[in-house]
Amino acid sequence: MIKKVPIEALQPGMHIERFDCGWLDHPFIFNSKKIKNQAEIERLKTWGVTQVYIEDGQCPEPTLPARIERKIPPPPVAFEHIVTPQTARVDRELKHIPICHEIVRAQKVRQRASLAAKNILADVQAGKKIQTREAKTAVGELDNSICHNKDALFLLMRLRKKDEYTFDHSVSVGVLLLAFCRAMGFDQETTRTIGLGGLLHDVGKMAVPQAILNKPSALNEDEFKKIQQHVIYCKEILATTHNIPLPVAQIAMEHHERFDGTGYPHGLAAEAISLGGQMAAITDVFDALTSDRCYRNGIDQVEVLRQLYGWSHSHFNEGLVHRFIRCIGVYPAGTLVQLESGMLGVVVESTDNLLRPVVRLIYDTRHDWAIRQKDIDLSKPNGKGGEDRIISYESAKRWRINPLKVLGLT
Ligand SMILES: [Fe+2]
């Protein structure tokens, strides 16, 4: 039998069946977990978790305190000055539009943002000053689309052309940062400033020879040093641009710094890197690794999220990586997944329960045949998908399935 116990009764070795709070309000990736050590119990306490559900018989009968005060979970690091008290709940309160409607608007918005990025990068290459008005308008439109349904732009990020990497990467890092900021509960002005930083973060690459940027084979030491110079060029370019807020310049300068001090150009560590710089580092790596490049194919998003999680104890701020994974979703839109029933499907969009998204079923692996496509919402009970659950994510390449085609995007 499952019973509720106070956090004080929890001991290393016990298995938490579920938490007495939302997925966003505890520090772990999954809603059930075996507690490995006392440090994990202390982390739960700092997040304000006061009670959990465990299987009966794991500990002596505890008594619940008469009244339990729920604390608001603290922000992951010392960023209180820009995190509103409603942290992590804000994005759920924004007006939600179904993805089938938002995707049309998102396509136009993304096109305009790509054009703005191309114009800016072309101006830099021609030695002209950056005009930020077009970029700011594009960032505002992207932010509006994310507020309506972030999965629309997340899905479109998967539509890439290898020869347009620099433009697509600029827009994608902008999109990811905007969504990340919204998930953190930042206000509109802060969100859009950091989003602009994402769009402009690699302007310095225009000063690096294209032959090095697009080299299909491994870079030698000299070439790698020249690529690293792009953050210094960023600083010089943005210093001559009017009305560039400080966080934008910090993102451009710091997106290759690492939390453990192993990054470049200055080897800054921990909070010596600005919040925007730390967030940009995570989004930059996520987009770079998931993209097809001239020298390698992109890695599945779920796999990259796992890698980021692994680096959360070294290269990146642990709390921010957790928030980013929650923002993107454990199973991001466009991911091929297998369900317990044996059905294969593509994630259409996330729900309030990020482990139970909306899935478009396409194939029955038990009978080995394609089925008539239908969408089920795994978060809804009573015959609408609530009985089934995701047991694994699958490689679309191995199954020779194009998830974007399934979703009607190609
Ligand atoms: Fe960069």
What does this 3D model show about the protein?
By secondary structure, this protein is an alpha+beta fold. It folds into 3 domains: 2-74, no CATH class; 91-328, Hypothetical protein af1432, CATH 1.10.3210; 336-406, no CATH class. The chain is 42% helix and 12% strand. It has 15 helices and 9 strands. The strands form 2 sheets. It has a 5-stranded antiparallel sheet, with no helix packed on it. It has a 4-stranded antiparallel sheet with strand order 1-4-2-3, with no helix packed on it. Helix 4 (133-156) crosses helix 6, helix 5 (165-184) runs antiparallel to helix 6 and helix 5 crosses helix 11 (275-290). The structure holds fe (ii) ion. Fe (ii) ion binds at residues 202, 230, 255-256.
Identify the notable features of this structure and list them briefly:
single chain; 410 residues; alpha+beta; Hypothetical protein af1432; 5-stranded antiparallel beta sheet; 4-stranded antiparallel beta sheet; 15 helices; 42% helix; globular; binds fe (ii) ion
List the helices and strands and how they pair.
Blueprint: E1 2-6, E2 15-19, E3 33-34, H1 38-46, E4 51-55, H2 90-93, H3 99-125, H4 133-156, H5 165-184, H6 188-200, H7 210-213, H8 221-228, H9 230-239, H10 246-254, H11 275-290, H12 301-310, H13 318-328, E5 336-339, E6 343-349, E7 358-364, E8 369-377, E9 390-393, H14 396-399, H15 403-406
Antiparallel strand pairs: 1-4, 2-3, 2-4, 5-6, 5-9, 6-7, 7-8
Helix pairs in contact: 3-4, 3-5, 4-5, 4-6, 5-6, 5-11, 5-13, 6-10, 9-10, 10-11, 11-12
Fe (ii) ion binds at residues 202, 230, 255-256.
